[in-house]
Amino acid sequence: MSAFAIPLPLEPKALPGAQILPWSVVGPSEQDTVTAQGQLQLLFGLELESHHLRTHRYYETRLDGVNLLKQQSLTQRETKRSNAQFAILSGFYTVRNPVAVQDFLVDRRPLLDLLFAALPKVKETWGADARTELELLHDPEDDSSSLVVHVLSNHQNAYAALDHFDEQWWLNRIGESEGLLNFSVEP
């Protein structure tokens, strides 16, 4: 940092009742400081900050750092939680392309909740021996993706059971899926 000597027209001012001695000088007033800062800004194009602003920015930066650390900690916990939930879900569904399905579910918590809620209803409708497969389908026409639960069942009326499943449970919950989850039967 370079030092510059700039003559500034500041006159010492005495406090009321104080004596001015030849060797004592009272510092510049607030108005003189503002004037001096303005002159420096004009001369050098510098923006000067008061101690208060520097201190305020320091604490803002520090608080932003603390908030960032808290946010990162929350994100890490949420990621661990999401990974654990997906591991549990994978125990109930056979997942085709698990990495893609897990990535799809990361920001779609309602779908994860629906998949957990659907499993007992699937078993109730198609029987305890029904198997479920979860797959992420991509539609190249509109560049959209959605999940499909394939129910594999030996139920003698598998398609009639699908109608029953729709009427008794799925049609009441379909809005929660935002069109991103479907059920199909594969006898």
Report the portion of residues in β strands. 5-15%
CATH architecture label name of the largest domain: 2-Layer Sandwich
The helical percent reads 40-55%
* Major β-sheet strand ordering: 1-2-3-4
Number of helical segments with 4 or more residues: 5
Note the run of SSEs as H and E: HHEHHEEHE
Averaging pLDDT over every residue, what do you get?
Answer: 78
Give the total of beta strands: 4
Biggest sheet, open or closed, and with what strands and sense? 4 strands, mixed
Using the coordinates above, name the CATH class of the largest domain.
Answer: Alpha Beta
Structural class: alpha/beta
The assembly state of the depicted protein chains is: single chain
Low-confidence stretches: 22-28, 48-52
Shape descriptor reads: elongated
Supply Rg: 35 Å
How many structural units, i.e. domains? Answer: 2
CATH topology of the largest domain: Alpha-Beta Plaits
Q: How far from one another are the termini? A: 80 Å
Structure description:
- With 187 residues, the chain is α/β, with parallel strands linked by helices.
- The protein has two domains: 63 residues; 94 residues, Alpha-Beta Plaits, CATH 3.30.70.
- The protein contains five helices and four strands.
- A four-stranded mixed β-sheet has the order 1-2-3-4.
- A hairpin with a 4-residue loop joins β2 and β3.
- The chain is elongated.
- It starts with 29 loop residues before the first helix and ends with a strand.
- The relative contact order is 0.09.
